[in-house]
Amino acid sequence: MAKLGYARVAAGREALHDQVDALKEYGCNKIFTDDKTSKNTDKDGLKAMLDYAREGDVVVVLKLDRLARSIQELQQTTDELRSRGIDIISLTQNIDTLSKQKDALFDWIDIFAEFERELHSERIKLGIENAREKGVKLGRTEADLSLKEQAFEMYCSEDHTMKEIIEETGLSRATIYRYIDKKKAEK
C-alpha cells in the first residue's frame, strides 16, 4: 500500500509547500502537485497521480477540495478511485475511507453532486424565465430574409458557386440550402 499525496494551490489560500509539508509529515511515499490556480488549467499532477495509483493505494490530501473544484468533479474523481480500490484520506477533515465510513462518504458525495446539479438546473430555468419576462428573445437569431433571398437568386442564376454565395451573403451553407428547399416547396 502506497500513500500518495496530492496538493493543489488555491487562489488566496494556503501555499503549496504547506500542503506538501503536511503530506510528508503524514508519511506519503510520493507526492503529486499542481501549482496553477486557473479554473480551466489542466491538472497534470492529479492526472499523473491517478495514472500512478494502484489498487490498495491511499490518496492523501489536506482537504477534499484539493481533489476537485466542484461536487461533480469530486464525485467523478472519488468514483474512479473507489472503482479501482483506492482509498482517500483527508487530513484536516478527519475523512478516511479505510475505516467503516467509506460507503457513507461516497454516498454523501453522490447526494451532494445530485443536489448541485438540481440547483444548477433550477438557476438556468429561472434565468431563462427572467430573460423572457424582460422580453429577451432566446435562441439563435433568424438570418436576414433579404440575405436569404439574395442567396436564392444567386443560386438560381447558376452564375455563382456555393462558396461565392456564402462569402457574399455571410449565411451558412445549411441556412442557404434550407431556404432553397423551402422556396422550391412553395412552388
Question: Can you put this structure into words, describing what you see?
Answer:
Strand 3, helix 3 and strand 4 (about 85-90) form a beta-alpha-beta unit. This protein has a five-stranded mixed beta sheet with strand order 2-1-3-4-5, with helices on both faces. The termini are far apart. Helix 3 runs antiparallel to helix 4 and helix 5 (about 145-155) packs antiparallel against helix 6 (about 160-170). The protein folds into two domains: about 5-100, Resolvase, N-terminal catalytic domain (Rossmann fold, 3-Layer(aba) Sandwich); about 145-185, no CATH class. The longest helix has about 30 residues, at about 100-135. It is built from seven helices and five strands, in the order βαβαβαββαααα. The protein has about 190 residues and is an alpha/beta fold. The mean pLDDT is about 85.
Overall residue-averaged pLDDT value: 86
CATH class of the largest domain: Alpha Beta
Radius of gyration: 27 Å
Q: Quote the CATH topology of the largest domain.
A: Rossmann fold
**Numbering strands along the chain, what is their spatial order in the largest sheet?**
2-1-3-4-5
User: Number of folding domains?
Assistant: 2
